[in-house]
Design a protein that fits this description.
It is a single chain. The strands form three sheets. The chain has a six-stranded parallel beta sheet, sandwiched between helices. Helix 1 packs across helix 12 and helix 6 crosses helix 9. The two termini are 16 Å apart. With 367 residues, the protein is an alpha/beta fold. It is built from twelve helices and 14 strands. The protein folds into two domains: 162 residues, NAD(P)-binding Rossmann-like Domain (Rossmann fold, 3-Layer(aba) Sandwich); 189 residues, Dihydrodipicolinate Reductase, domain 2 (2-Layer Sandwich), CATH 3.30.360.10. Helices cover 29% and strands 22% of the residues. The structure holds NADPH dihydro-nicotinamide-adenine-dinucleotide phosphate and aspartyl phosphate. Pfam families: Semialdhyde_dh, Semialdhyde_dhC. Belongs to the aspartate-semialdehyde dehydrogenase family.
Length: 367
């Protein structure tokens, strides 16, 4: 474990589903000190416990009980260096930009900057190397930013798929095709989720914008970084080996934990066997683990052998929801291999990923 000075951090969207998980995970963190909380004007000015509808299984941590919620403006967060954003996407764009321009390191959960060619879209268990884009992002500003940047995590369902796919590509080379069908938990919609009469005893086969996000974000995350002739790194989104992705997204009556059925076809022929795939998933270790990031899971991918696992209620909190669960690895008669993924949408699908991204930035000397 590195010997770092502790860093003051702020959480924007602190009263939301993701914000509450940020607070739970940061309450006693070896690198970070929870220093300031931000939310809307509806909540600003109130002591945190009065502003939030607390829905975590642990009580409101002592470290935030006496914090007063602030408006999400840089001038109210001056003692912080790092900002974690769990803001609603409707407002995240300009607010996160204001913090970047004010020289804060912004680790965002929102979708707003994921497609920006100069913003790293990082799943910390997969592509931390994309942090190499940060100096170029800073240089785009006049004058160049000294410390500020925006770095985003991925959509929670994208995260669940790209972790096993990265493990498989590392061992077997490029994947040509991927079909994914999701069964997404209600908490993915943010508090209060869907009306009970819409989701109880029901499945909703539509989540606005979700399929397009997954189909696009996977290419940026699994793509490489190429050095341009002007020394600028750009994203090479599978230009050489086009990965084709098709996603079908559903909302199901589960509180937390996204389940995803995945089928893949490898470029290499013959493809690997199910047993070879299981071994590659088990052997895969993330940079976050090798760099001793405190929130990194020991098993990046936990492979279940039982025929009826993983299941959200039983498996979503394994390794504090920081790893990804895979089960039912088997031959696919249409593509090559198919399996089931379970990712905790609020942990590795959101807050844990952003915290791991910040831990990696500290371990890499970027902060
Ligand atoms: N839930 C999940 O599983 C995942 C969510 N995400 C993304 O993370 C972000 C947060 O999601 P989630 O926690 O579910 O959303 P919630 O709706 O639960 O929380 C939204 C947060 O944004 C704040 N907010 C709303 N409007 C404003 C404003 N005008 N100014 C400042 N703050 C504002 C709210 O504050 P207030 O309480 O005062 O209204 C609240 O703290 C979203 O972008 C979402 O897409 C990403 C991955 C997974
Ligand atoms: N949209 C996901 C949650 C999420 O990841 O959102 P976004 O891609 O906007 O960060 C869901 O509803 O389950």
């Amino acid at each position: 474990m590195h010997d770092f000075r502790k860093i003051n951090v702020g959480v924007l969207g602190a009263t939301g589903t993701v914000g509450q998980r940020f607070i739970t995970l940061l309450a006693d963190h070896p690198f970070f000190i929870l220093h300031a909380l931000g939310a809307s004007q509806r909540s600003a000015g109130k002591p945190y416990p009065a502003a939030v509808t607390w829905k975590q299984t642990k009580p409101v941590p002592a470290v935030v009980r006496n914090l007063v919620v602030r408006e999400c403006k840089p001038e109210f967060f001056t003692e912080c260096e790092i900002i974690f954003s769990g803001l609603d996407a409707d407002v995240a764009g300009p607010i996160e930009e204001s913090f970047r321009l004010a020289e804060f390191a912004v680790f965002s959960n929102a979708k707003n900057y994921r497609r920006d060619p100069h913003v790293p879209l990082i799943v910390p268990l997969v592509n931390s190397s994309h942090m190499a884009m940060i100096p170029q992002q800073r240089a785009l500003h006049t004058p160049p930013l000294r410390k500020g940047f925006i770095l985003t995590n991925a959509n929670c369902s994208t995260t669940g798929v790209v972790v096993p796919l990265a493990a498989l590509e590392k061992t077997f080379g490029p994947i040509e095709s991927c079909m994914v069908t999701t069964m997404q938990a209600i908490s993915g919609a943010g508090y209060p989720g869907l009306p009970s009469l819409d989701i109880m005893d029901n499945v909703v086969p539509y989540i606005s914008g979700e399929e397009e996000k997954i189909e696009w974000e996977m290419l940026k995350i699994l793509g490489g970084l190429t050095e341009g002739d002007d020394g600028n790194k750009a994203f090479d989104m599978h230009a050489k080996q086009p990965l084709r992705v098709s996603a079908m997204c559903n909302r199901v009556p589960v509180i937390e934990g996204h389940t995803e059925c995945v089928s893949v076809r490898f470029a290499r022929r013959p493809p690997p066997s199910p047993q070879q795939v299981r071994e590659a998933l088990l052997a895969y270790t993330s940079d976050a683990w090798t760099m001793s990031c405190p929130s990194a899971p020991r098993h990046t991918v936990f492979v279940h052998e039982e025929p009826d696992r993983p299941q959200p209620r039983l498996d979503r909190d394994y390794q504090a929801g920081a790893g990804v669960n895979v089960g039912r690895v088997r031959q696919c008669p249409v593509l090559d291999i198919k399996f089931v993924v379970l990712a905790n949408n609020v942990a590795i699908g959101a807050a844990t990923s952003s915290i791991l991204n910040a831990e990696l930035a500290v371990c890499k000397g970027i902060i």
